[in-house]
Design brief:
With 250 residues, this protein is of the alpha/beta class. Helix content is 42%, strand content 16%. Helix 1 packs parallel to helix 12. It binds phosphoenolpyruvate (PEP). The site of phosphoenolpyruvate (PEP) has 14 residues, from strand 8.
């Protein structure tokens, strides 16, 4: 049995006071949630406040991105050791918004994943096809390429420490959720890649989250698919009641 992970990606939302208010409301609502790992990725400026607020709770904190060098003259970047030192345990890598707007490539995702692992962080590596790629029948080949060039470049030991997030780009922030069956098909492709590149044991242990317009009213159907091991939630993770409802749905 793979343990479920529910992760929230706040993107570029919430200042310090909003971060503290979120945790005050959210933590009591999820205090009894023993069936899943809970992760929240605030913006960099709110990481320390989030770590302080979540101290002693069942909620772990994540970065939303990381640079691949450990330190140096890289103005504006944040390193994996910095995230770990600030109290993060996870980091999202290769989110489609980074790929779309900030030049993220499969190559940079691979480098970032290795550095994050070296710093003891758990990378949440995002993959997913665009609408044009889906409509032209390229979903499988896109996922295979994204898998092989980043997660597939890790050693077996490194690979066993990452999470994958299948996030079809056409479903992110659009209100269009993939049907549970469509998501499960994509997860199967990724799990098959893991079996071929690593081993059957690696594939069956791999936790793959689905992301794309997950809401309290569709989480149950998605999680009913055995292939889906959790969710990466954007918009609906900003509201403590909504995100708690997603976490608490079994
Ligand atoms: C995301 O940011 O990873 C995401 C899936 O966003 P949303 O839930 O808003 O579609």
């Amino acid at each position: 049995m793979r343990r479920r992970v529910i992760a929230g990606n706040w993107k570029m939302f919430k200042v310090l006071s909003e971060t503290r208010a979120f945790f005050s409301a959210f933590l009591p609502m999820v205090a009894n949630a023993k069936h899943c790992d809970i992760v929240i990725a605030p913006p960099f400026t709110a990481i320390s406040a989030a770590v302080q607020s979540a101290k002693g709770s069942n909620v772990a904190i994540s970065g939303q991105d990381v640079f691949w060098e450990e330190e140096g003259a890289f103005t504006g970047e944040i390193s994996a050791p910095m995230l770990a030192d600030a109290g993060c345990r996870f980091v999202i890598i290769g989110h489609s918004e980074r790929r779309q707007f900030f030049g993220e490539t499969d190559e940079s995702v691979a480098k970032k994943t290795k550095t994050a692992l070296a710093a003891g962080l758990t990378p949440v590596v995002c993959v997913g096809e665009t609408l044009a790629q889906r409509e032209t029948g390229q979903t499988k080949s896109v996922l295979q390429k994204q898998f092989l060039s980043a997660p597939g470049s890790l050693t077996p030991e490194e690979f066993s420490r990452i999470l994958l997030a299948y996030e079809p780009v056409w479903a992110i922030g659009t209100g269009k959720t993939a049907t549970p069956e469509t998501a499960a098909d994509a997860h199967r492709v990724l799990r098959q890649c893991a079996a071929q590149r690593f081993s059957a044991a690696h594939a069956s242990a791999l936790r793959i989250l689905y992301g794309g317009s997950v809401k309290p009213d569709n989480i149950k159907g998605l999680m009913a698919q055995e292939e889906l091991d959790g969710a990466l939630v954007g918009g609906a993770s900003l509201d403590p009641k909504w995100f708690a409802a997603i976490v608490n749905t079994k």
